[in-house]
Amino acid sequence: MIGLTDLFDRGGPVLYILFAVTLFIWFIIFSKYLSTSYNNKNWIQNDFKKFSDGININKNNVHLFEESFLIHIKRVTSQRLKMLDGLIGLCPMLGLLGTVYGMIEVFEVLAVLGTGNPRAMSTGVAKATIPTMAGMTIALSGLFFKFDLANKVERYQEDARLYLKKVVSVWNDLIKEDRHRKKQH
Fold it and tell me: CA 122, CA 120: separation in Å to the nearest integer?
């Protein structure tokens, strides 16, 4: 059975970089899951209260406030997802870098020893294939969770839109009542 240190030795120095990127990917995934599971239904209402605190909202600026709040929600909920996309896309590229590194080693062995020593070439072949496999595996596992997080973020944004629609409807009703009262007096 191959241990983790043996795998890193056989895979070459690119595996260390892939390992660091993987830790960062999983840190982002776990922190995003924690923040989305921590945020409950009251999160939108609480964020709305914080966002609208001190803002004088009237019929002239309701539309601007609505747009601003939705942009704020989109920014807050999709925070770090672009970085996650970039890191997941980087993993296969780092795997290919490991392939190039391993193939260079294979060609060096071929240049020095010729084709008569397959055991010497196997080290380079391992350094060529292990990082590629690791990069693809990391990317595939990261993509699964990234898409799940993206769906959660979309649901939060849709919940915010629905909540805002209700609030704007209530505001419009209050404005109509206020106009109606002013006309009666």
Answer: 6
- In a domain, residue 99? The reply is no
Name the residue range of residue 148's domain.
13-94+138-184
How many domains in the chain?
1
Instruction: Report the 10 Å Cβ neighbour count for 132.
Output: 20
Residue 94 neighbours by CB distance under 10 Å: 22
| CA 34, chain centre distance (Å) | 13
Nearest partner of 168 among 54, 50, 68, judged by Cα: 68
List the pLDDT tens digit at each of the 185 positions of the chain.
Answer: 678 788 788 888 899 999 999 999 999 999 988 887 766 667 778 788 888 787 777 777 778 888 888 888 888 888 889 999 999 999 999 999 999 988 888 888 888 877 777 777 787 888 889 899 999 999 999 999 999 999 988 988 888 888 888 888 887 777 777 777 777 76
**Does residue 118 lie within any of the structural domains?**
no
pTM of the model: 0.78
Give CA–CA dist 174/49, Å, rounded.
18
* Residue 6 placed within a domain: no
